[in-house]
Amino acid sequence: KVKKVLTYPERQSQCKHEVLKRLYGIMEEKKTNLCFSGDTTSFAELLEVVEKVGPYICILKTHIDIITDFTAENIHKLKNLASKHNFLLFEDRKFADIGNTVKKQYSEGIYKISEWSDIINAHIIPGPGIIEGLKSAAGEKGLTGKRALLLIAEMSSKGNVATGEYTKACVKMAEENQDFVVGYICQSQLSKDPNFIHMTPGVKLVEGTDSLGQQYLTPKEVITKRNSDIIIVGRGIMNSDDPATTAATYQQAGYDAYLEQCS
Ligand code: BMP
């Protein structure tokens, strides 16, 4: 039987970006390809649930702008949880403006995302200037190599237009900016190059939809059929009665699927 994907240690040694090397290291050590999307409007609740699911995840994805009780002190607590449980922070800001604007959105304002989020993402609608702008903001804070960008190549929602030529243009832009772009938000594998990781949202233990266009695939489908690398799970964990046990279930499902892929 031919192995379909490289193992995490193989990818870690073959990729160039420091953030990606760290991520593969965490995935191997903690045996997890689970990213938890902590989509709550309460920072207090976010900290509480992350304390529980921290041991099972390699990344915490946030939507910092939905939080009503934002404080720098809470960011400090979140960073401490990330160190304690060894996971990366990914602010799902979906930047989508010209370079000069996103540069400020990334580093300034209330949230100062570049100061705490290891990973961010962006739409490619504005062209490569968006990548340059974000990269220069990280550079000005002395964070070159410590911050990385994912490009949104495909989406999970019904009727989205990130398909075909758009997705191809996204792959091209990623390949031309490997010093900062480390992968994709996508629905299936777009590249076999270990310098690019694939993260897939729209994941639940049972396939289905929500009432606002979200479409769900299972961890097994995402990892073994679509050859993605990371499963992103929000409500599947957040709305469960026991987030820790549920996160462990997703971790196991995702990791078993990976083992099946690389054995
Ligand atoms: P949930 O598992 O609760 O449906 O959450 C999915 C998360 O992933 C949300 O935070 C959403 O903003 C994000 N997301 C998505 O659902 N589809 C995409 O194509 C891109 C996303 O970032």
Automatic annotation (TrEMBL):
UniProt keyword Ion transport, yes or no: no
Alphabetical UniProt keywords: Decarboxylase, Glycosyltransferase, Lyase, Multifunctional enzyme, Pyrimidine biosynthesis, Transferase
Pathway annotation from the record: Pyrimidine metabolism; UMP biosynthesis via de novo pathway; UMP from orotate: step 1/2; Pyrimidine metabolism; UMP biosynthesis via de novo pathway; UMP from orotate: step 2/2
Residue positions binding substrate: D39, K61, S156, Q214, G234, R235
Lineage: superkingdom: Eukaryota
All copies of domain Orotidine 5'-phosphate decarboxylase, residue ranges: 33-250
Active site: D92 (for ompdecase activity), K94 (for ompdecase activity), D97 (for ompdecase activity)
GO biological process: 'de novo' pyrimidine nucleobase biosynthetic process; 'de novo' UMP biosynthetic process
Keyword Metal-binding attached: no
GO molecular function: orotate phosphoribosyltransferase activity; orotidine-5'-phosphate decarboxylase activity
Family, as annotated: In the N-terminal section; belongs to the purine/pyrimidine phosphoribosyltransferase family.
Protein name: Uridine 5'-monophosphate synthase
Lineage: Eukaryota, Metazoa, Spiralia, Lophotrochozoa, Annelida
